[in-house]
Amino acid sequence: MGHLLQYILNGLARGSIYSLIALGLVVIYRGTGHLNFAQGEMALFATFGAWWINDHGFPLWISILLAALGAFVGGGLIEYSLIRPAAKKSPFAVVVITIGLFQAFNSLSGLLFKGAATGLPFGTLFPDAPSDFFRLPGGVIWRYENIGVLVTVVIITVLLFVLFQKTKIGLAMRMVANNADSAKLAGVPTNKVLMLSWALSAAIGTIGGCLVAGINANVSLGTMFGVFLLASAAATLGGLDSPIGAVVGGLSLGVVESLVTNYPNDWWGSTYIGADTAIAVAFVIILVVLLVKPSGLFGSTRVERV
Amino acid sequence: MTPERAPLLEVRDLVAGYGAVQVLTGLDITVAEGEVAVMLGANGAGKTTTMRAISGMINRKGTITFRGEALTRRAPDEIVRMGIAQVPQGRGTFTDLTVEENLRAGAYVRKGSGIEADLEEWFGVFPRLRERRSQKAGGLSGGEQQMLAIARALMSRPKLLLCDEPSLGLAPIITQELFDVLKRLNTEQGLSILIVEQNANLALRIAHSVFVLETGSIVASGTAQEISNNDAVRTAYLGY
């Protein structure tokens, strides 16, 4: 039993990262119906940005905030200059552009940051000395860093909830998500709302990227590939248009990954079953969930009467 | 029966459509202050296109003047701020939002003061909406959704309300109730209304002036009385 709790706690930390990237995906998807394939690599680029600022002598938390701010502006600019003109032509054009951005941000990171391919050392916001943990019953340890990552996700989720449910901008975002045509007729400048969605999404992604880098103590060009794969799976599992679904989806995939990676090791001492199998198992679970509930765990099935 | 009223909305030589398809080919209508104007027309005549052109939802040419101000080049949100609210065809309720949130959404262009009071006012006019204020709008019946769509449009405090086929898909008794509400809004609050309808009989009963739209332009117009007596219109739209 002790092991189970241990693996769950470890999985929650990793799942928190998936949740953050998934949240970014959901924020854009709600407004536009587009999947941003560049979500992970945009976050990667901003994480390198945070590394660069940090490297110039700024404290890490300020570096991350500045990078998130830069990503906010950059995300808005991307929507304005690339996505919006493409969306007028066809939804497929947007898909192609986000795939292009995926490639572009990865290459740009390699070009701008020396040593990005092999990895640059990245600090963490949370105490991570070997002795920095809580001791729970059954010999389970809960590392401060894992707690910190989870708390960060909870805080961002709560902030997003307040934004969506309690503010006028949030109401406008939900109006656009639900019925863009009616939102326009009610006087919402829908273009600005979509721009804000991209900005917000890029900023959230930056936090996610910096947390991954912190856990790995390293950021390299390959850091976000696997994370993005599982984050998009988490968003799908949660229902693509549901922020809470993204969080639940991300956390549960993190836990599944942790269990599938660790248990076979305990039972058979096998190292053959590793993270790759975990991804396969995660996707089987998603497949089953979507077969039973095509809109995902928390996705909205539109009820409309005519 | 109508004394001369100041024109509120003047549409001249309106040309609009979707992409290469021209739906309106030079349309003229005038809605006077305080009146109910009805536009009749068959499917595909361009009724919805007219409404969307007025609200700035599609590209259009010609002149549209509202309270003396040109709005042909304005964006939808500016047009709402100028005082034109539209209840689109198919109601356009925000199905995932609650009834109350739908009404607050309607007040999007307004600043704080008076919104709460208006909310109470429309809950008073539509008590069913008050009962269901925290339910998702998607679960409402068609008639309730139509009432909600109208109340939502009114939350922006418009001078002119555009209603695109409000009777679509509603039971006759609900439609009757709906037109009673629209008539009351006109007589009690002085709200000017432009209704687009296929249900000519009901619409003519509350209309002051009527326009008949055929394939992109107005082919007949006059008072409700005049149009009811027009044989061609009667056979085409009233069925007797």
TrEMBL record, chain A:
Keywords: Amino-acid transport, Cell membrane, Membrane, Transmembrane, Transmembrane helix, Transport. Pfam families: BPD_transp_2 (PF02653). The chain crosses the membrane at residues 12-29, 60-80, 92-113, 147-164, 193-215, 272-292. Its main location: membrane. One of its GO terms (molecular function) is transmembrane transporter activity. GO terms for cellular component: plasma membrane. Belongs to the binding-protein-dependent transport system permease family. LivHM subfamily. This is Unannotated protein. The lineage of its organism: unclassified sequences, metagenomes, ecological metagenomes.
From TrEMBL, chain B:
Residues 9-240 form the ABC transporter domain. InterPro entries: AAA+_ATPase, ABC_transporter-like_ATP-bd, ABC_transporter-like_CS, BCA_ABC_TP_C, BCAA_Transport_ATP-bd_LivF, P-loop_NTPase. GO terms for biological process: L-amino acid transport. One of its GO terms (molecular function) is branched-chain amino acid transmembrane transporter activity. SMART domains: AAA (SM00382). The keyword ATP-binding applies. Gene3D superfamilies: P-loop containing nucleotide triphosphate hydrolases (3.40.50.300). Keywords: Amino-acid transport, ATP-binding, Nucleotide-binding, Transport. Belongs to the ABC transporter superfamily. This is Unannotated protein. It comes from freshwater metagenome.
